[in-house]
Structure formats: C-alpha cells, structure tokens
Structure to design on (127 residues):
C-alpha cells in the first residue's frame, strides 16, 4: 500500500516493524481488516499476495470500487501506523514525540477561509 522510497529514506508499510505495529494495533478494526483480506483473496481467485504487482493493482481497484468502507478502514489502519514510525517522522522533519500535550506551532493563516464553514451553520445536534 505504501512502497519504500530510497529517495526519502523511508521503508514501505510492509517493513517488519511497521507491519508488527499494524498487527498489534488492529483493536476494533480487526474484523474489518480480516474481511478485507478475505475479499482481496476472493477477488484474486486465490492468495492476493501471490499475484503480480499489476494484477494486485487491478484487484485493489476492484476492491475499492466494491467495498469502499472496508478499503477506508484498511487504509486508515496502515496509514495510522506508518506515520508514527520514527523513520517516517524523521523524513518529514517532525519531532519524534506525540502531538499532545505539547502540540505543534501552527502558522497564522487566512481565517477567512473558514467563512463558508461558518456560513453553513450548525450541522450537529447538542448532546
């Protein structure tokens, strides 16, 4: 899903450490990820992992088209773990720390960009 990049000095999402983090972090997404793997294998007519790169690409597109909710969960799980890997964070020149409680400095920008959101009005209900 995320290939390695020698240019940026980062591993792919299939890196042993990242994959171990993914497997250990499934929690509530475990069943969706299991179902995703089953659907990918079914679309492949066997083991998805045994297909060529071009075949896998076509199968993934079918999977995304047919099962968008499952695809979204799978992407979220992989991306969440990938971007907390120290090597990836270093390549982005990010401090190796959680964002909270210290937070990050955010440059002041053009607050008028929020005007359409404000004009939309309340889109939630009070608890």
């Amino acid at each position: 899903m995320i290939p390695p990049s020698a240019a940026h000095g980062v591993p792919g999402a299939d890196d042993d450490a990242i994959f171990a983090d993914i497997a250990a972090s499934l929690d509530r997404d475990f069943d969706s990820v299991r179902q995703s793997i089953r659907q990918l294998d079914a679309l492949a007519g066997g083991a998805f992992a045994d297909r060529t790169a071009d075949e896998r690409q076509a199968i993934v597109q079918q999977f995304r088209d047919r099962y968008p909710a499952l695809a979204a969960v799978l992407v979220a799980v992989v991306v969440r773990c990938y971007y907390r890997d120290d090597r990836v964070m270093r390549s982005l020149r990010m401090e190796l720390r959680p964002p909270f409680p210290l937070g990050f400095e955010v440059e002041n920008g053009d607050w008028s960009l929020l005007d359409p959101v404000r004009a939309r009005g309340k889109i939630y209900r009070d608890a």
Q: What stands out?
A: The chain is about 50% helix and 0% strand. Residues 16-93 form one domain. The radius of gyration is 19 Å. The CA atoms of residues 68 and 84 lie 24 Å apart.
